[in-house]
Amino acid sequence: MQAKDVLTDGFGRIEDLVRRAIEGADEAALTRRLDPDANTLAWLAWHIAREQDGQVAPLAGTEQVWTSRGWSQRFALPFDDSAIGYGHTSDEVAQVVAPAELLLGYLADATAASLAYVERLADDDLDVVVDESWDPAVTLGVRLVSILGDAFEHAGQAAYLRGVLDRTAR
User: Fold this and answer.
1) Is 155:41 a contact under the CB 8 Å cutoff?
2) Are 31 and 40 in contact (CB under 8 A)?
3) Which CATH number characterizes residue 32's domain?
4) Are 147 and 121 in contact (CB under 8 A)?
5) Is the pLDDT of residue 2 over 90?
6) Residues contacting residue 25 through CB under 8 Å, at least 6 positions apart
7) Read out DSSP for 43-85?
8) What is the pTM assigned to this prediction?
9) Cα–Cα distance for residue pair 21/13, rounded to 1 Å
10) What is the domain extent for residue 24?
11) Which of 68, 123, 144, 148 is most enclosed, with most CB atoms within 10 A?
12) What is the DSSP letter of 137?
């Protein structure tokens, strides 16, 4: 097995995890908060796709699908196109309102772009330094694992949130 096979498996799992967390959820469920400052399902799904798209596209040397495929216009969020959700305030989290189908469509497109990039990689590419501002410097392999780690963390939060919402709706 090559390293890119492991990365392909990782990126491939994110979409399924998020799909299970938000599929079939209505707007009320997608925007409900467990407390006044908690993340919503809609924000979590959007952020997972944005952070993947926003970080992988520059590595791949491509434009983000957020802008190149018209997702920014379809979502019509009140943020700059460069926003990926990092550092969002509670009020900004609340502004992410979108149906599950739109969220999943964007995630599928961002995932496809990530998988296309990973497919081009050779094992030696993962040792290339992509960020020298850290000590030690960050390699491509470390950056891709970091992107996956953040996505898995937020997908777990979405799964937990959906479970709580489903149990409290009974």
Assistant:
1) no
2) yes
3) 1.20.120.450
4) no
5) no
6) 41, 100, 162, 165
7) HHHHHHHHHHHHHHHHHHTS--HHHHTSHHHHH--SS-TT--S
8) 0.95
9) 13
10) 3-168
11) 144
12) P
Place of tokens 């030696």: 124
CB 3 within 8 A of CB 141: yes
At position 158, the amino acid (one-letter code) is: A
- pLDDT tens sequence across 46-83: 999 999 999 999 999 999 999 999 999 999 999 999 99
14-30 tens-digit pLDDT: 999 999 999 999 999 99
CA distance 162 to 29: 8
User: Residues 36, 90: contact at Cβ < 8 Å?
Assistant: yes
Q: How far apart are CA 45 and CA 47, in angstroms?
A: 6
Number of domains in the chain: 1
Q: Dihedral sign for Cα 152, 154, 158, 163, please.
A: positive
| pLDDT band for position 169 (cuts 50, 70, 90) | confident
